Amino acid sequence: MAAAVADHHTRAIRGQKTRALFMIITLQGHQRNACSNIFHQLFRLRYDTFVRDRQWTLPTRNGTEIDQYDRDDSIYFYGLDEENFLRSHVRLTPSVTSSLLADCFPHLVETDVDIRSATIFEGTRLIVNPRKGSKISNKAAKAELLVAMFEWSKSVGATHIQVIVESRMLASYVEMTPDVRPLGLAHPYGGGPRVQGGGEAIAIRCPVTDKVIDDLRAFGGLVNGIDLRRNSPVLPRAA
After folding, report:
1. Distance between CA atoms of 160 and 71, rounded to whole angstroms?
2. Is residue 3 part of a domain?
3. 238 occurs within a structural domain
4. How far apart are the C-alpha atoms of 167 and 142, rounded to whole Å?
5. Which is nearest to 229 in space by CA: 35, 48, 66?
6. 103: CB partners within 8 A, 6+ apart
7. Residue 227 — very low, low, confident or very high, per pLDDT cuts 50/70/90?
8. 76 versus 234: which is more confidently predicted?
9. N or C: which end of the chain has fewer CB within 10 A?
């Protein structure tokens, strides 16, 4: 995998309406010891979102959520608002070494595709939570995070990103870009939607293309640029 460039740069985005809401920072898993305070906040946000609020049964450690896919080769994207509060997060993993879909949910794939490939990455633990969350700002915040993820993926030669999502959210992903494709039918997990901590999941995949990136920009109504910092850590402000 090509190493991400450790610099700060802003990418131009044309012809939309919303100024950048968040600063998006990327970190690699091997920076976990050097940036332990930042990673602690990321893992705490995941605990609050998925364990405390959604009541998923996940490995926890001292109020943080850390699993077997938090490896040195994982990539972390997180967004800070104008006051440096942590407001978004997604983890991207190379499917060859770290695939929740292949390891735990292969039954979600009913098409003849490779789940593991050197050019396929997998997104997990997506969180978008702007404090002043109008519908527009939520859409823009999600678009900023996903554009950063797709632009990074394009820069390292990835061809596709696959994700496991709640089946009820499928339409919202298709709204972002019509190039999203389900890999199979939806199936219940954790006892199904009527059980606390359960739901219905579906696997989707999207190509890493300029068209998809433009679709995401249009979805979020982005203007000017994404403040994207690669491997240039910024410590979130304590909530």
Report:
1. 20
2. no
3. no
4. 18
5. 35
6. none
7. low
8. 76
9. C
